[in-house]
Amino acid sequence: MKFARAVWAILVAIKDGLVLLLLLLFFGGLSLALSMKPMPGRVQDGALAITLDGPIVEERAKLEPAALLLGGGATRHQFLARDLVRAIEAAAGDGRIRAVTLDLEDFGGGSQVTLSRIGAALDKVRHAGKPVLVRAVLYDDATFQLAAHAGEVWVDPLGGVLLRGRGGTMLFYHDLLDRLKIKAHVFKVGTYKSAVEPFVRNNLSPEAKEAETAVFGALWHDWQDEVKRVRPRADIARVTADPVKWLNASGGDAAKAAQAAGLVDRIGDKADFARRAAELVGSDKADGYKLTKFGTYLADVGVAKGGKAIAVVTVAGDIVDGKAGPGVAGGDRIAALIDKAAASENYAALVVRVDSPGGSVMGAERIRAAIARFKAHGGARALPVAVSMGNLAASGGYWVSTPADRIFAEPATITGSIGIFAVIPSFEDALAKIGVGTDSVRTTSLSGQPDPVGGLNAATSAVLQSEIDMGYRRFVGLVAASRHKTPEAVDRIAQGRIWDGGTARQLGLVDEFGDLDQALAWAAQRAGLTKWHPVWLGDNADSLGGLLQQLMSDDSDSADGSDDTHMAGFESGGRDLAGRVAMARFALAGQMAGDLDHLLGGQGAQAYCLECAGLVSPAPQSGEAAAAFARGPSGWLSLLFGVAR
User: Fold this and answer.
1) Is 323 annotated as catalytic?
2) From CA 563, how far away is CA 560, in angstroms rounded?
3) Looking at the domain assignment, is residue 545 inside a domain?
4) What's the pLDDT tens digit per position in 119-175?
5) How many domains does one find in the chain?
6) Which of 119, 131, 500, 569 could lock 218 by a disulfide, CB 3.0 to 4.6 Å apart?
7) Is 552 exposed, middle or buried (0-12, 13-18, 19+ CB in 10 A)?
8) Is 440 a catalytic residue?
9) Structural domain includes residue 546
10) CA-CA distance, 29 to 187, in Å (whole number)?
11) pLDDT tens, position by position, 563-615
12) Is there a single domain that holds both residue 57 and residue 92?
């Protein structure tokens, strides 16, 4: 028995040793894989081929492994706007690149400001004497804004162009809440703060309609000006004034109608497009024409690293409390990034890129305070801070902009919405209707308050409104100090009203027109730098999630874009007009889920521009499942409908 026990002990020791060795090898290999950086591939003479099969975003969402598992490994690709600009501008001066091709068949969209910036990069390619070709099945406003910068616009024979302009429909729940006996207690400051109107009205107030009509009109005007400048032959008025007459003139053939109106140049399928590209850059048996894929070329181009570093932090998406993100602007997470950069003393200036409708007042204040601390690290000579507003920097998005020495925006930027609100539902009437009674024992007027079951009493309502009033005064005070105005002058242009970038500049809410590059250049000049490079704070991809995505998803940058299995949910469809109309139900469900989240999500005071919902940049959607479950009941609803807010 002793011998058997000794043998068994040896076998167990060998087994444990092998398990330990395998674990060491596994984690060692995993660590090596996570530390590996993409290596540049071979860039061949020919075209830079970009297949935009996802949205263009300011910041990629964090990839949740749980979302990959629940979604069967399917994720939606996200393209960083700055990566596209860097690659396209490099192609303009690269002798190996003789043309640029864009496949927009599965394009996930982008904001008006972002597409203008990428369009300007394409203009540089054309000015360098290199052809730019683009193809799609159906062009909508966003797709066509980008395509208009190409020298040759191709449309599929079964496709066309659908230009709808700015505007849309909002949902209002006042009567529904009345029928359900749910009370929405609203606390707000701002005549134009229409974020709460869906819960207290059945339509837009005259003030809200006035403000939003002005902004939508300005955006549509800017869109048309850009398209007409780069494609003068496009007869937009003919297309939008009477689309039925326009289509009937071509026998109902949408592709031919688009060509007749100067919107597209050629009609052909994917194979025709590849043959045309081969005429320009040479043929290739594998891909149809000689090309270098976007990912390969981006790795080859690399990033500039000379000179002193300028920190860039991105505030993208809803501002929330805690460490959420990237893709959502978690106040604690972004504040920690800024504080760490300041403590390192490695940065000569800070540029804050804002593309956010706002959100939590507390989250916005955490970010604002961190920016102010960064400035103070310069001592008597404060470190320069510039804000670069993207498509949207409203409400809390403007709150975080107040410490800036200089604010840059674009004519199509939406900003302002300086106001605060809170919504608290109570269900005492709904419970009474189904036979549930309530009673209470209190030692003060605030005991057990706010009470969603028994209702809010007068003292609680007064206290909550006082908090909102105080928050608004603080918001106005921050803007007044930043913009060198009196609080009274700020209040006149605040009141929750949104403004387009052009009007905001006239009002003094922004300093000058300019993109991110101009904000960086200003910060460098202010810091006295002649040689510098930007460093994006927190720009280290989620290593585990990135590895899982590489293992579980296909190559998004395929030359012909024929494999669409990577597209999440319904987003792989909707290529023609009928498909787009069918997809509208998902947008409606998403709007309802978002509104429900604001009513039931248990959020505090909000500096949020709910009326900007239709103006928000495409949301990164790689973590839908995990984010939906984290949001609770309203998140589950959005998950059931296949959308995420």
Assistant:
1) no
2) 8
3) no
4) 999 999 999 999 999 999 999 999 999 999 999 999 999 999 999 998 877 888 888
5) 2
6) 500
7) middle
8) no
9) no
10) 55
11) 433 333 334 445 666 656 555 555 656 666 666 666 665 566 777 776 675 55
12) yes
